Amino acid sequence: MSRKLKGIAAAPGVAIAPLVHFHGTLDYIPTWKVAPEDVDKEKGRLTEAVAEVTRSLHDLQNQLAGELTAHEVRIWDAQLAILHDPTFRQDVAREIDLHGVNLEVALQRVIARYEEVFERMPDPAMRERAADLRDIGRQLVGALMARDRTRYTANGRDYVFAADEFLPSDAGILDREHIRGIVTAHGGKYSHGAILARSLGIPAVVGVEDVLVRAGSGTTVVVDGNTGTVILDPNADELAQYQLRLREQRGIDQRIAEVRFQPAVTTDGVAVRLHANVEGVRDLDSLETEPIEGIGLFRTEFAFMERRQFPTEEEQVAMYRRAMQGAGGKPVTFRTLDVGGDKPLRYLRMPEERNPVLGWRGIRLCLDWPDILFTQMRAILRAGALGHARILLPMITSRSEVQRCRDVLDQLVRDLRDNAEEHDPQIELGVMVEVPVVVPVLPEILPLCDFVSVGTNDLVQYLLAVDRDNQRVAKMYDPFHPGVLRVLQQIADHCARAGKPAAVCGEIAGDHVFTPVLVGLGFRELSMAPVFVPRVKLTLRSFSLGECRSLAAQALAADSTTAVRKLVQDRVRVRWDRFLASGDAGGTGR
After folding, report:
1. Which of these, 385, 388, 453, 394, lies nearest to 421 by C-alpha position?
2. Which strands form 14-21's sheet, in the order they lie side by side?
3. pLDDT in tens, 122-167
4. What is the homologous superfamily of the domain 3-22+152-234 according to CATH?
5. Does the domain formed by 36-144 have CATH 1.10.274.10?
6. Which class would CATH give 272-433?
7. For an engineered disulfide with 204, which of 26, 30, 124, 182 has Cβ 3.0 to 4.6 Å away?
8. Other beta carbons less than 10 A from residue 547's beta carbon
């Protein structure tokens, strides 16, 4: 009997193969008391272990240099930095001095303390750096015990890696020719292990807490890295469905190179602007600007969350200029600070709230603390002198909120002009549509702004009253709900009547199955994680505008989520099967 488990989608793609358990920890850590006269000798063992692990990491970087970009290979630089950090080595030596424990135990204690610090950090990306510490500890102790990790040989059989977590050093022991997927009990999508999986093109689902208990080695599993789903012992229908998707995926991979730099247009030449979502400056080094029209969502809050205090105006200007440069002259949409809810700032005292997602967050916080908004808008204006910037306001619920922000922006533009300071005089102001109540009042708001961007993640969550991170109700979170589509239609219609562009920047913008529906509803700008751009472009280039409108009309008229999903998936699959079989990626010839 098949069992479906839910986790976090960490690397896209689909895999079907038997599960293989990997045990990442050492079964036995030696413990002994170190005599005072042997303390210096014991501390000296650390130098030898660091040298050995350093050699090992450099070997791994060289080994993977042909499969990863120069930026991706630098994942291991973080571990090398820890290894050679004087503070880390001093803390380990101090543990031996104070407590007379052997080096293996000292390492375990120090790394545990460091982990605790990282895991208390509010930024998910910073919390997941704790995995690098665990990985370093494992490698150092292994080196001290002369325990080399055995390289896994799959004997020519495909397999799915299953472990407590996937750490960067695991890449050195895997049979990469036959690994098809990764499933872990812990970890997150910002960890270096997840980044590595994406870079190597291995579908991965992390945070599946009971997978190691419920599935033994040899169990056939489906890993859906697009939705964060793992199916144990799939039944015949599930297996057939995912085998079809796997064949489709292989065909798509062959076509991506063909359309990568071609225009994002329908078969009859209607252009759709595809933009990238960026979570901060750390994403810019690996961003390919050629296939996109610009950055449609730059989440500024992550830079605030990584600091110990509010960044100054000059610090923000430097960050936003880096984004403008990374976009290669293309427009960048900066979302103003969106903290609160599940994204607190450790240096800002937030009130205790029973439901923080519905509380003091987004534009509400910034309007209550206008200095934050003033400084950020001024920094974006100054950075915008390098190209074209757009400012996007989150959690908008009323016209008065937009009016206050417009007044601040207009005053800043006048001040910068009067003082002859470089800035972007053509900067645009947009609003996010993510709170349902804003939809019926959009006609009053649109005269105050230049564009609209629909944040479907929160919009769908609020419309359906479903917390998508709550496993008890997460299955009810479905953007294919007819009511959701009708709200999206209302948004597109309001914007069309006002002559204002409407974009979608939530997860459904990167779901290629949704692409023809969004285009049919009237959206001409989609912003997504860069990894999804080729798939969306492929789908777009296989439909005409008329076909998109017809499909959207049928979906709007459907009476259930199931009916909508089947209608759209069947239509897209037939089209993809046709052009993949013919080798025609849309046939636009453009």
Report:
1. 385
2. 3-6, 229-232, 220-224, 14-21, 159-163, 179-184, 204-206, 8-11
3. 555 566 677 888 888 888 888 887 665 667 888 889 999 998 888 8
4. Phosphohistidine domain (3.50.30.10)
5. yes
6. alpha beta
7. 182
8. 18
